[in-house]
Amino acid sequence: MRGPKRRGFTLVELLVVIALIALLMTVMVPVILRFMSGRGLAMAGNNIAGFIAYARTEAMNTRQTHVLVMFDKEEDRSPQGSDIARIVGPGMVLFRINPNPTTTDDQVINFVKELNFKAQVGGDVRFADGWLRKCPKGPMLDLPQGVNDAFEGKYKLVLRPDGRVVVPEDKPGYVLDIKESRNLDSDIILTDDTRYVFVDVNPATGNTRRSSPLDRSDVGDH
């Protein structure tokens, strides 16, 4: 006696299912990529906030001035007279400043820690080109002349031993609090070529705020 006849999928039915899956993938992949891109920028903004908080704590704990220097590309910052090679950037690098070193192991400019965008953030996150062109890069009064010379042409934040953060040409309050925040006046602007994140630093507390990832069409070309 024969059992019940089992019916499988026909070729037409399989083709219809495959077509539906392909259609869903076509719709969903751009949405997923856009979502992941925004998460990368948001994470980078959060990392910067944590890094600035760490730098401020280091300055207060050591009672020495520190400086955060922005590097838009890889650079050789090996200590003079040392066999240790140190390539930094792109990202932010924290240095401790000791204008009167008393030991051979200490120098005026001492590397502390780096937030490297490629190694620690990933993706294509970088400083926005327009912001890099406009941001102030002149000497800082809180830094010795030799330190200003060493980081000439770099955007810098100075962390003072009293906990204050010296932000060059800082605007009062958080620029992100107002509608006109989508401009080049934010203290740091990040991009992944399709979106932007704006970061503002409070000089008194070192706290930071960041915008949500914003499309190029929302903010223009920075």
List keywords for this structure.
elongated, 12 strands, five-stranded antiparallel β-sheet, single chain, 5 helices, alpha+beta, 222 residues
Structure commentary:
It is a single chain. It is built from five helices and twelve strands. By secondary structure, it is of the alpha+beta class. It has one domain. The strands form three sheets. Strands 5-4-1-7-8 form a five-stranded antiparallel beta sheet. Strands 6, 9, 10, 11 and 12 form a five-stranded antiparallel beta sheet that branches. It has a two-stranded antiparallel ribbon with strand order 2-3. It is elongated.
SSE layout and pairing:
Blueprint: H1 11-62, E1 66-71, E2 75-76, E3 87-88, E4 91-97, E5 109-116, H2 117-121, E6 126-127, H3 129-134, H4 145-150, E7 156-159, E8 165-166, E9 188-191, E10 195-201, E11 208-210, E12 214-215, H5 216-219
Antiparallel strand pairs: 1-4, 1-7, 2-3, 4-5, 6-9, 7-8, 9-10, 10-11, 10-12
Helix share of residues?
A: 25-40%
Strand order in the sheet with the most strands: 5-4-1-7-8
Mean pLDDT metric: 82
Number of domains: 1
Overall shape: it is elongated
Low-pLDDT runs:
none
Given helix and strand content, the structural type is: alpha+beta
Using the CA coordinates, give the radius of gyration: 24 Å
